[in-house]
Amino acid sequence: MSSEITNHGKDFKTKLSDYQNTVEKAIDHLLPAAATKPTRIHEAMRYSMEAGGKRLRPILVMATAESFGAKIETEPAAVAIECIHTYSLIHDDLPAMDNGDLRRGMPTCHKQFDEATAVLAGDALLTYAFDLLSKAYSDNPPLALKLIQELSSASGSEHLIGGQMQDILSEKTEATSEELEFIHLNKTAALLTTALVLGAILAEASDETITRIRQIGQNLGLAFQIIDDILDATGTTENLGKNIGSDATAHKTTYVSLFGLKAAREKAAAHTLEAKKLCQRLTRQTSFLTELITYLENRIT
Ligand code: GRG
Questions:
Q1: Which of 140, 203, 208, 298 has the greatest number of C-beta atoms within 10 Å?
Q2: Domain-located, residue 1
Q3: What is the pTM of this model?
Q4: What is the number of domains present in the chain?
Q5: What are the Cα distances from residue 291, in Å, to 272, 285, 288?
Q6: Is the CB of 214 under 6 A from ligand 1?
Q7: Mind listing the pLDDT tens digit for each residue in 200-220?
Q8: Is residue 15 in some structural domain?
Q9: Residues 188/228, Cβ–Cβ less than 8 Å
């Protein structure tokens, strides 16, 4: 599979849908077949991975790699980060966490299968992400190592899992704005940032560029989470394909509960603007990324 998607001259929606189709095909191609024994675990992994979703993280990997002129396959890195994201959703939906029964418009993994299978499917996707990276980029060990370091760090106890732990701890009392920012920087922004960074690593971008990209990711991630909080308060189950109002039910502190809807929208707009400004300062063709950031601010799903 070539990773050099030629996007010149296409409008934003066409490019977005091209990227989404590429991700769907890569997931099908790169995950173990459902018939692999034991079939139940591979069926569960594929069930959650193939349930759709916006595919934002893999698209950010591929679009960043393309902006910086990557010459190697981007699909394995794109699928690896979607494996991590999907594992986090499967585990987040478990009764021990958010106890959700609907995700991406379908029954959650533990509802479709059972709790033990859902725990194992999440574990298997987490492990598979690194298996995939180590094998797909084995002809360039320094690059493979950088990708693995970046993704494992973002997924670990100081970022994704740490953010989730703090989120659970903060359910008991109203979180302060600092605590809320810590949660969202780690639970949400860390993986979105890493998506951009993986793309830059694939293109062998400089450390200086990667530092700038991390700032874009943090702003994009905070904007994305604030919009998520707004959608949880104002959206519909039909549009979002998941249970809504869950934050209020769980008495969770969100940007909306802490600052109100109007201020939350303003904060999302400020982070979006900052992310776009930082993008424009990269001396690369970043028009798709900039349009994607705008699109995400206005999303309804
Ligand atoms: C490590 C168990 C564990 C959890 C980590 C990611 C996470 C914390 C929990 C998932 C639930 C949640 C609300 C996370 C915040 C990030 C977020 C908004 C995820 C949803 O991402 P989308 O909207 O989902 O990109 P789709 O379905 O489109 O891929």
A1: 203
A2: no
A3: 0.94
A4: 1
A5: 11, 12, 5
A6: no
A7: 999 999 999 999 999 999 999
A8: yes
A9: yes
